[in-house]
Amino acid sequence: MTAASEIKPDEIKTRIIEIEILRYNPETDDEPAFQTYQVPCREDWVVLDAVNYIKDELDRTLSYRWSCHMAVCGSCGMMVNGEPTLSCHSFLRDHPDKLRIEPLANFPIERDLVVVMDDFIDKLKSVKPYIVPREKRSVDDGTHKQMPAELARFKQYTLCINCTLCYAACPQYMLNESFVGPAALALAHRYNLDTRDVGASAREDVVASNPGVWECSFVGACSDVCPHDVDPASAIQQAKIAGVLDYFKSFLMPKGEAKK
Amino acid sequence: MSRKPFIRPVQTTSWWLNQGRYIRYMIREATCILIGAYSAVLIVGLIRLGEGKIAYEAYLAAVQSPMGMMFHIVALAFALYHTTSWFNVTPKAMPLTFADKRVPGGLIIGAHYAGWIVISGIALFLVGA
């Protein structure tokens, strides 16, 4: 067994990577511009390690968001060579020797790699991403019961970390800002599928509308870039089918049997 | 400190050229034009058939001309791309569970291809091939 302390850092291979970062200082700049850094990268580094190296050793004015370094917090999303990427979740050894890093696409730039996320937060709130219970319950009523099969229906949609890579990948969101978007619609679907939840009709106005699921034309880019395989595209297509069925059921059962 | 967020310009017409997945999406969407055109040619054939033998033979000759053949080859290629690209995303839109387990996506896609082959076989049988 080899103790970690026996491996000296310089024994791990390093290579020089040229990293271009889109910089923007709202106090002095009219528009963003690229700045290039030469970064000696270790073989086991992820993109975020290289950005941290720049901040620590080369240029402490660089601004970006990050926290957990383990693909849980969802803060460190960036465009890496044009692809929405969770920078802590992407090894440098899988990239060429030249990297171009930009703030997440489709969001306004606050400063450097920091984007303004207000629009996403508002949309997330609009779908009521929490359990709307059938009746008010107290702690004394005990826990909600749910079968494993009922949990399995929506489990994958609970894995969203709100990193907004899907919004940066989505051309519909790029072209039409009013689109509710992949992550918020996937979470709406997650709660609609939950047996403990009766909020589907309260979410309907936002979800089953034109800026809701019907703005999606199933490009599928959101699911390609999702770091946790939430597959928002699948949630949106299923919500479209559910919306159509509800619409026709409302003719067959006008007294509201179709809705929960 | 005052805020001055910068909004990057959107390439409203050329955005889809930036990524392979956007190009594949645009091709998938564009295939409907050829499928629509093929349907129109087929409907014209039915009208000609209703008009009598001479009209229908003229239609057949037009379809079998080099231009007509070329059109059908291109339409077939687009129809195949259209069909396969949509078949391959069916597990996303129609997830199935069986005995509390998710049916694997490959099985759902495979069932579509199997159905396609069976229906094509029936169609070929009906036209007496």
Detailed description of the structure:
- The complex is a heterodimer of chains A (260) and B (129).
- With 260 residues, chain A is an alpha+beta fold.
- Chain A folds into two domains: 11-115, Ubiquitin-like (UB roll) (Roll); 118-252, Fumarate Reductase Iron-sulfur Protein, Chain B, domain 2 (Orthogonal Bundle), CATH 1.10.1060.10.
- Chain A contains nine helices and seven strands.
- In chain A, the strands form two sheets. A five-stranded mixed beta sheet of chain A has the order 2-1-5-3-4.
- The model of chain A has no long low-confidence stretch (mean pLDDT 92).
- By secondary structure, chain B is mainly alpha-helical.
- Chain B folds into two domains: 17-71; 88-129, no CATH class.
- Chain B has five helices and two strands, in the order ααααββα.
- Chain B has helices at 20-51, 53-64, 66-87, 90-93, 105-126, and strands at 97-98, 101-102.
- Chain B is flat and about 80 Å long.
- The mean pLDDT of chain B is 92.
- The chains are: A alpha+beta (260), B mainly alpha (129).
- The A-B interface holds A 24, 26-27, 29, 31-32, 82-83, 105, 108-110, 116, 148-149, 152-153, 171, 174-175, 217-221, 223-224, 231, 233-234, 237-238, 240-241 and B 1-8, 10, 12, 15-16, 18-19, 21-22, 25, 29, 89, 91-95, 97, 100, 102.
Keywords:
heterodimer; A: 260 residues; alpha+beta; Ubiquitin-like (UB roll); Fumarate Reductase Iron-sulfur Protein, Chain B, domain 2; 2 domains; 5-stranded mixed β-sheet; two-stranded antiparallel ribbon; 9 helices; 7 strands; 31% helix; 15% strand; B: 129 residues; mainly alpha; two-stranded antiparallel sheet; 5 helices; 2 strands; flat
